[in-house]
Design goal:
single chain; about 250 residues; alpha+beta; Serine Threonine Protein Phosphatase 5, Tetratricopeptide repeat; SH3 type barrels; 3 domains; five-stranded antiparallel beta sheet; two-stranded antiparallel sheet; extended
């Protein structure tokens, strides 16, 4: 069974560019069955194969689950974070991400910040990454339709009502565009990364013999500020900053 699954992975990898959505869904369904049987390595191979051509929050979540079952915490956190970026309000992803984080050595305290948690995540994320872009287009079309109706109507009361409705639609359009722009920046921001090596020294300067400021371990989330001389300047959520080799991390 495992040999067949790995063969499917090889074939799908070679023909990834020609893979249809039906074929990807078939691989995902097969991966789910294999995962349920307890063969997490084979399930991961199938999920990864589908992820070459298509991706979704649920697929990234399943890949994260496979890594977690295989005791690969850094990769589990990486894919949970990727799933959460696409579906910020998903409670299951948040729960499993927090569960995986409990296995991380570093306990970095976040700075106090206002947050609405999953409620805010559901509001800004919607059902998919393009939802707010579509809403802004529909709101804009309705706005112009209502304005056009207000211009041509001769009934004073109806005209006032239409202009009032147009004002509400204008507000909705502005809000939708703002959320769409926010989501675009959020989805294209690749500054966040996960430490992949067991232990890495974070130094005061981008050179090997610089002073070690602190040590980070696998699974810790950091932000990449800049790169210089083959080194990455990183920042923790508590504000600590230092330099480390980029090979030690993988961007979310």
């Amino acid at each position: 069974m495992k040999t067949i699954a790995l063969s499917c992975l090889l074939f799908a990898s070679i023909h990834a560019s020609a893979m249809s959505r039906v074929e990807a869904d078939s691989l995902i369904a097969q991966g789910s069955r294999v995962y349920a049987s307890g063969d997490h390595a084979a399930a991961l191979a199938l999920f990864d194969s589908a992820n070459v051509a298509f991706t979704s929050p649920s697929l990234l979540y399943n890949i994260g689950n496979c890594y977690f079952k295989l005791n690969d915490v850094p990769h589990a956190i990486l894919f949970y974070e990727r799933a959460l970026r696409l579906a910020p309000g998903d409670a299951d992803v948040r729960t499993n991400l927090e569960l995986a984080r409990q296995n991380v050595v570093d306990r970095v305290n976040e700075l106090p910040a206002f947050t609405l948690g999953s409620t805010w995540g559901k509001l800004r994320g919607g059902r998919d990454a393009d939802q707010w872009a579509r809403r802004s287009l529909w709101a804009c079309l309705l706005l112009f339709a209502v304005l056009g109706s207000a211009v041509v109507t001769r009934h004073r009361t109806a005209r006032r009502a239409l202009y009032g409705l147009a004002g509400l639609l204008l507000l909705g359009t502005v809000l939708s565009i703002s959320f769409a722009a926010f989501r675009d920046r959020e989805l294209t921001d690749d500054s966040a990364a996960i430490i992949m090596t067991a232990k890495v020294d974070v130094r005061s300067e981008p050179r090997a013999n610089a002073t070690v400021l602190f040590v980070l371990h696998k699974g810790t989330k950091i932000s990449i500020l800049q790169q210089e001389n083959g080194w990455s300047e990183v920042q923790l959520v508590n504000g600590s900053v230092g330099w480390m080799p980029p090979a030690s991390l993988e961007r979310i």
